[in-house]
Amino acid sequence: MNILITGNLGYVGGVLTRYLREKYPQALLVGVDSGFFVDQLTSVDAPPELLLDRQLSCDIRDISLEQLQGFDAVVHLAAVSNDPIGKSFEQATESINLTGTLALAAKAKSAHVGRFVLASSCSVYGAAAEELVDESGILNPLTAYARSKVDSEQQLAQLADDSFQVSCLRFGTACGYAPRTRLDLVVNDFVASSIANKEIYLLSSGNAWRPFIHVEDMARAIDWALHRDGVAIEVVNIGSAAMTLRVNALAELTATIISDAKVTYAQDASPDNRSYQVDFSRYQRLAPDYQPQWDMPATIQDLVENFQKIGFSNGNFRTSLLIRLNSLRQLIESGQLDEQLRWSSPTVLSE
After folding, report:
1. Taken in order 168, 174, 176, 179, is the CA torsion positive or negative?
2. Residues 167, 308 contacting (CB under 8 angstroms)
3. What is the pLDDT of residues 92-116, one digit of tens each?
4. I need a labelling partner for 268 at 20 to 30 A (CA). Which of 48, 114, 218, 300 fits?
């Protein structure tokens, strides 16, 4: 199988690259990435892109039809990837996450690529009621990022047919250790703060429900989508009930595992409207052999062990480049990127 992975130099991409190379050693794996975060390695191991057959340096908005020739599948991870970045760069979010995604998919279909896998998000549900919400539930996106995923799903459905199978995977909030670990994700933030500051400080009341998924389990779900049978368009919640927690319960669990850490709340802590519990039963029925393997205690412990390997101790990590928004702002302030998140001059990673 010939697979193109967009955004392969990001948080999920490195884990997916290793997963696919180990499971399918004969597959042709090619990555394409703008390279915003290429320097943000958090591992003592060799960079995962060395496992690829080829690495392309390209903005996904500029991928040509010729570059897509010969692939059986496109795994589309590249995106403006969280709410703070989406809020700061709303025009770029729409340009990359929606317009860029649809143009990429249309070119892929024209190039006779058979499968297109979109990394979507459970954040499309926004503020849901206390009951479980399934794939037919009301969508209530609260952010530019979530809106871009809703619109992408709906318009990709118009492209799907018997020759172009589309899978929209609505992932829970990503977590877990990776070659390029992000610390702007709540589980990773709580663990990093516990290690470096001995404290988890909650700005909200922590009562919001949130589904989480380990990055390796995300790779497992993408593997299913690359090989699934069935309908032309599939929109599926990806995660598990075992990894659905209230934010305050997650904080307390983290502090229990990292025993010298404590949980404190801001005096003016307010509710977080982004609260939802998601029904994952459809994924269980469709993909019984690809179900999540990680639970939260194991995820936290694995983060601790890997942070220790790299000697992590930065108590000011929220101002570091391991926060994606900080990386982008530094690139803009230095004149390397513009406000549309385009390089001011061409970049070369490898060919």
Report:
1. positive
2. no
3. 999 999 999 999 999 999 999 999 9
4. 300
- 262-to-192, 207, 265, 268, 345 alpha-carbon distances in Å: 13, 18, 10, 18, 46
Q: Mind listing the pLDDT tens digit for each residue in 68-77?
A: 999 999 999 9
User: Are the C-beta atoms of 209 and 275 separated by less than 8 Å?
Assistant: yes
What lies within 8 Å, CB to CB, of 5 at 6+ separation is: 13, 16, 17, 20, 29, 30, 31, 32, 75, 77
pTM listed for this prediction = 0.95
Which DSSP letter does residue 261 get? Answer: -
Sorted by where each begins, the domain ranges of the chain are 2-181+212-244+274-294
Is 172 in contact with 278 (CB distance < 8 Å)?
yes
Q: For residue 313, what are the CA distances in angstroms to 193, 298, 299, 307, 330?
A: 9, 21, 19, 8, 22
Question: Cα separation of 311 and 302, whole Å?
Answer: 14
pLDDT at 350: 46
**CA distances to 12, 101, 188, 215, 236 from 240, in Å:** 18, 27, 18, 13, 12
Using CB atoms within 10 A of its CB, is residue 65 exposed (0-12), middle (13-18) or buried (19+)? exposed
pLDDT at residue 301 greater than cutoff 50: yes
Cα 241 to Cα 124, 190, 213, 294, 296, distances in angstroms: 18, 20, 10, 12, 11
Instruction: Of 192, 123, 184, give the one whose Cα is nearest residue 324.
Output: 184
Q: How far apart are CA 9 and CA 81, in angstroms?
A: 13
**Domain 2-181+212-244+274-294 falls under CATH 3.40.50.720:** yes
CA angle 144, 204, 184 (to 5 degrees): 55
The DSSP symbol for 163 reads T
Say if CB 215 and CB 175 are below 8 A apart: yes
For residues 237 and 24, give the distance between their C-alpha atoms in angstroms, rounded to a whole number.
25
CA 306 to chain centre: 20
